Amino acid sequence: ENIQYLPVKNILIADYQHHDGLSRAQSEVIAGRISAFNECFFWTSGHARFLRESGRSTNLNINLKALIKPDLDIGVPGGRELLDFSDALVGDDRKALDAARIALADSIGEEAIAGAAAVAANFTKNDRIANGCGIPTEPMVLKATKEIRAELKINDFRSAINSSRHFPDDM
Which of 38, 48, 53, 98 is the most exposed place for a label (fewest CB within 10 A)? Predict the structure, then answer.
């Protein structure tokens, strides 16, 4: 692909497809699960919001709780395989990763593998940067994600302090 990141001009387009073989919702499933696994308040809040909006714009019945409890049905085509692949990537079981990669290819196509791996790798890095630097979430995003954060208990993430110490009234 020519660019690694979603172009800023397209970030609010809920059905924009950035990676070959992956819809916006599928990309947000991967990014959201990786960020939830890493307990990144900053990115999990945003990905959950974009996943919800992507589902609304594409008529998917999204279950955001699956970002936190990946045994649930997330409501996205290939969702089970995307969640399993995400978990296998951050795990230490090579056989589980190989099996998850094959299952993902069988479910949504081989062209999705590179995009899924790029999204997962990118947000593993981004989560660590956000958590390590203490990046706070902006008040506008805090307000827009208040219900989502309560539903998913994202405010309980250790990194939530990075936002609550700056914007306690918006938490």
Answer: 98
